[in-house]
Amino acid sequence: MQISSRDTIAAIATALGEGGIGVVRISGPLARSIVEKVFRSPVPTDRWEPHRLYLGSCLDAEGEVLDEGLAVWMPAGRSYTGDDVIELQMHGGRLNLLQILRSVLDQGARTADAGEFTRRAFLNGRIDLTRAEAIVDLIAAKNEQALNVARRHLQGHLKEYLDELAERSLTLAVRVESWIDFPEEFDPALDASVQLIFNELRAFETEVMRLCDSYAQGKQLQKGWSLLLLGRPNAGKSSLFNRLHGDDRAIVTPLPGTTRDLLEAQIALGGLQLRLIDSAGLRHRPSSEDADTPRLKGGEHSSSDEATSYTHDDIEQIGVQRALRAAGEAQLLFAVMDRSRSFDQEDREVAQVCAGRPTVLILNKVDLPPKMSQEDLSIFSPLATFSVSCQSGEGLESLRQWLHDYMEETAPAHELVITNERQHRALQKASACLEKALQQGATLGPEFLAEDLRSARQALVEITGQVSSEDILDAIFSRFCIGK
Question: pTM for this one?
Answer without folding.
Answer: 0.69
